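Could someone model zinc ion with this protein?
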Amino acid sequence: MQRKAIPKQIRQRVYEKYRGRCAYCGSAIEYKDMQVDHLVPLYNGGADDVENMMPACRSCNHYKRASSLGEWRKQLEATTKTLARDCYTYRNAVRFGQVTETPHKVVFYFEQEAANV
Ligand SMILES: [Zn+2]
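Reply:
Sure, complex below.
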């Protein structure tokens, strides 16, 4: 489905929500590289407004895709299990102490921001 382009002044407001950082991983992003993600996906009834729009880096937008935040968090928290299952090099790196797994809850950047207010 082709969506209407987001007006420039709306994009600018989305960009400024987290002072030029990705709402999910917290990386600094250039305005021109920002992708606008809908926190609650539109198909799930999310609103097409600034409140629901999140500035996202290309990688986060790609990996979140149309997942809910909860689904994506679960995927991220399972990353080391997925790597251990699928990747011989990763298993070797763990076995020889090159990688130390530190399982913890994923807290997205915008959640950390909200907690610091
Ligand atoms: Zn990101």
